[in-house]
Each structure stands twice: as structure tokens, then as C-alpha cells.
Amino acid sequence: MQKLLALEKQPIFHHVVVRCFCTLLDAVPHFNFRESLLVAVVRNLGSSDDVVRRLCCSTMKSLVTNEGKHGGEATVEAVRLIADHVKAHDCQLHPDSVEVLDSTFHAALHL
């Protein structure tokens, strides 16, 4: 996990590493390093790279929609991290990120 986090900072590997984070989080949200994966994915929700941002947004939506895989624990962690992300960016979010919040609220209403 540490090697992936280090490789994420290198532009040549950024797309591949983010795809690994997203795929792993989506496939096995109960993974030991889930919080590290969530932090990395949430950090990239506002990426200026369209591919990275859309991949991360899609992963977060999937995580919320399929919360039966993890009993909702990952969703709670994700919402906390997204709230911190919103605060850190002074509520200046890309519309794709706003869609993630919207899907989170819709999923919560259907519980």
C-alpha cells in the first residue's frame, strides 16, 4: 500500500495507481487498508484530471450504492472524509464531486 501511495505522486503512474485504489475499494470495501484507500480516492474527487476525477466519483457512488458489501461502515467513513474534503476546499467543488454527495444523500433516504 505504501508503494502505491508513493507511486501516486509520480505523474507517469498516477492513472494506474488511482485505478488500483478504486478497483480495490470497489471490489473489497472490507480491505484492511480501507481508510487509506478512501483517503486517496476522496483526495482525487476534485482532481483537475477528468479521468481520475470521474473514476473516483464513480467509485464513491458505487461504494454508497452497494453498502450491503460492507454493512455501511465504509459509507460512514467516506461521508466523514468527504465532509473534511469539502471543508478543506472551502465548499468549492467540481460538479462531479457534488454528484457524489447527492448520491450519498439519496442512498441515505432509501435506508
Task: Describe the protein in words.
- The relative contact order is 0.13.
- The protein is globular, with a radius of gyration of 13 Å.
- By secondary structure, the chain is mainly alpha-helical.
- The mean pLDDT is 81.
- It has one domain.
- Helix content is 70%, strand content 0%.
- It has helices at residues 2-8, 14-27, 34-43, 50-65, 73-88, 95-109.
**Helicity, in percent?**
over 70%
Into how many domains do the coordinates divide?
Answer: 1
| Total helical elements | 6
Q: Could you say which overall geometry the principal axes of the C-alpha atoms support?
A: globular
Average pLDDT over all residues: 81
**Beta-strand content:** under 5%
- Backbone CA Rg: 13 Å
Question: Termini distance?
Answer: 33 Å
SSE string: HHHHHH
| Low-confidence segments | none
GO biological process, one term: DNA replication initiation
GO molecular function: chromatin binding
Helix and strand topology:
Layout: H1 2-8, H2 14-27, H3 34-43, H4 50-65, H5 73-88, H6 95-109
Quick structural overview:
The chain has one domain (2-109). The protein is built from 6 helices and no strands.
Supply the key terms:
mainly alpha, chromatin binding, Nucleolar_cplx-assoc_3, 111 residues
